Amino acid sequence: MREALVYVVSDSVGETAELVAKASLSQFNSAIYKIQRIPYVDDEGTILETIDQAKANGAIIVFTLVKPNLREFLSHEAKKNNVVAIDIMGPMIEGMEEHFRKKPKLQPGLVHKLDEDYFKRIEAVEFAVKYDDGRDPRGILRADIVLIGVSRTSKTPLSQFLAHKKFKVANVPIVPEVKPPEELFQVDPNKCIALRISSDKLNHIRRERLKALGLDAHANYANITRINDELSFFDKVVEKIGCSVIDVSNKAVEETANVIQDMIRKREMKK
After folding, report:
1. pLDDT 10s digits, 20-56
2. Which of 54, 114, 137, 257 has the fewest CB atoms within 10 Å of its CB?
3. Rounded CA separation 133/174 (Å)
4. What DSSP assignment string belongs to 43-69?
5. Phi, psi of 132 (to 5 degrees)
6. Which tens digits make up the pLDDT trace of 182-191?
7. CA 236 to chain CA centroid, nearest Å
8. Threshold 0.85, pTM exceeds
9. Is the Cβ–Cβ distance between 211 and 217 less than 8 Å?
10. End-to-end CA distance of the chain
11. Which of 259, 177, 180 lies closest to 220, judged by CA?
């Protein structure tokens, strides 16, 4: 099946248009699609280039442009080139203008300028990516939360989930052959959370992971003796740090995140 290509054109970051496009595309169960953002568009030249690309690639355009002249230009040029262009914001602004009998500001990106939470969330997500999987130990001392655990304890998805709650999270894998970064023993233990998992559960997860990759499910990575060695080393590190531990053996990422947030709230109340 041919991949559907959607160009998202916006005079801001394009997040709104992309979310609407994804929600709409989800209604077409068999659709295979790719979304490409064209952000911060404020000139006709970029619009013409996008229309040319859409025409050449058989794509459609979804756009959120607050300036009427750019909306009209895009709609006119797209129609002239037989390219489908869907205006998401224009009809909404025009309808509200008529209802409220008030002229809109027509300033791109106002929703994000007014939304401090948005910037905090974006900053936290970028932080989680930058300091994922122990790639830069300097993040440990800058983080709101530091997650530690052996491989396959959902450190990365948990970091991203908490980042969307505006927490800056660094995560560090614990491996017997690799000395833990010194920053782990310098950070406030209250910020550090260890993710514990049972050996049987970890064995199952790792075997399934190897199968999914087309590898031998009996490789050393999933060997129960190797797993017990890793967990034993993990326990020693946890004891040295003196941090809290959460058993994630039978918890979904959302459940673990809720436990962590409850822990943080209780500590904040005690201050």
Report:
1. 898 888 887 656 788 999 988 989 999 999 999 999 9
2. 114
3. 10
4. SHHHHHHHHHHHHHHT-EEEEE--SHH
5. -80, 145
6. 999 999 999 9
7. 32
8. no
9. yes
10. 58
11. 177
